[in-house]
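stage 2 :: seqdesign
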């Protein structure tokens, strides 16, 4: 924790130097990384920081409302942008995972540009625009961002950035792993729900629908995901499990029997994993009774889903997310 304190002080200094008397926008996702990054920058430049949370239409059930109330308690300025039409429009007809990631990365930046013009539009023209991101070391490595790295997938905040990026990036966590970020978060006194929140990828449910992303499919996945998370929490396993994506195999159908009739619905995959830093992961041995409750409830409560399957692949060879 001594080093964590040092990191905060070092970064506060570096940020003051970088931003000077300028202003910055922070891309807040609701997760621990961007929350900690924002808290550090707020220490450095105070109310010259504006936090922007983008609802891209691919968030989980109730997530935007939750983030709004959690974060308004901690940050002075929070701008919540509803950009669902923009993102989902841009994703129409797109199936390829890397293409999805690039589009989402680009639309995020467009949204932040618009937010920055809206928020700081009246400030002196031509000033440098700073964008604070909660980028971690593993994001950089896996997006192929440094020597000796390979492009596994383009994280929306690194390899997914557009070439014509106008922002100067501020990334105080770029050398840290998530367990370190959590320590920093505790040092800064952030609420433990924020610090210990399970990771959720910036591209959201968009990379958990295998196939084209549509509103109907998002609704189906949102329901299944909410049930799975509820049962995991009820079992008291939130902290033991690193995260548990629910994936909708939207282009696959299988025959089932629900009620007294034949169904031809979609499978979902649940992917509980344990991990230290997301660079490697093991599939989690969830208790059978928890799996049973998740399976029974999803197939009873989500009409379009008639099969629940379990992913028992570690990373490597599988990644945590399916796309
Ligand atoms: P993978 O699927 O590469 O995921 O094993 C490793 C960790 O990173 C999260 N993830 C992302 N987070 N933007 C993010 O902010 C992204 O584009 C992204 N892709 C994956 C994933 O949920 C896991 O925790």
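stage 2 :: out
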């Amino acid at each position: 924790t001594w080093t964590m304190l040092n990191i905060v002080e070092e970064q506060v200094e570096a940020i003051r130097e970088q931003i000077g008397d300028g202003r910055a926008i922070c891309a807040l996702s609701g997760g621990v990384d961007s929350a900690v990054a924002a808290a550090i920058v707020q220490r450095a430049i105070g109310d010259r920081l504006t936090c922007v949370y983008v609802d891209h239409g691919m968030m989980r059930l109730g997530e935007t409302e939750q983030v709004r109330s959690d974060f308004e308690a901690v940050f002075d300025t929070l701008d919540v942008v509803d950009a669902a039409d923009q993102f989902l429009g841009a994703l129409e007809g797109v199936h390829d995972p890397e293409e999805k990631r690039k589009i989402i990365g680009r639309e995020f930046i467009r949204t932040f540009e618009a937010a920055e013009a809206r928020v700081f539009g009246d400030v002196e023209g031509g000033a440098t625009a700073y964008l604070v991101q909660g980028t971690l070391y593993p994001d950089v490595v896996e997006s192929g961002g440094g020597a000796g790295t390979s492009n596994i997938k383009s994280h929306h905040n690194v390899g997914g950035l557009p070439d014509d990026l106008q922002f100067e990036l501020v990334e105080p966590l770029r050398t840290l792993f998530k367990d370190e970020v959590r320590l920093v978060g505790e040092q800064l006194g952030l609420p433990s729900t924020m610090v210990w929140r399970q990771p959720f990828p910036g591209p959201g449910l968009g990379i958990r629908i295998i196939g084209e992303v549509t509103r109907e499919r998002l609704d189906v996945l949102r329901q299944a995901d909410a049930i799975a998370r509820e049962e995991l929490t009820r079992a008291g396993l939130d902290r033991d499990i690193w995260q548990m994506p629910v994936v909708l195999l939207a282009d696959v159908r299988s025959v089932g029997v629900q009620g007294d009739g034949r169904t031809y619905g979609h499978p979902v995959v649940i992917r509980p994993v344990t991990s230290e830093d997301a660079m490697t992961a093991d599939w989690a041995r969830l208790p059978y009774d928890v799996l049973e409750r998740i399976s029974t409830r999803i197939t009873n409560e989500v009409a379009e889903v008639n099969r629940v399957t379990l992913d028992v692949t570690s990373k490597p060879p599988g990644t945590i997310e399916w796309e």
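stage 3 :: structure notes
- The domain at 2-195 is CATH 3.40.50.620 (Rossmann fold).
- Residues 101, 142, 152-153, 155-157, 199, 201-203, 243, 278, 315, 319-321 surround xanthosine-5'-monophosphate (CB under 6 Å).
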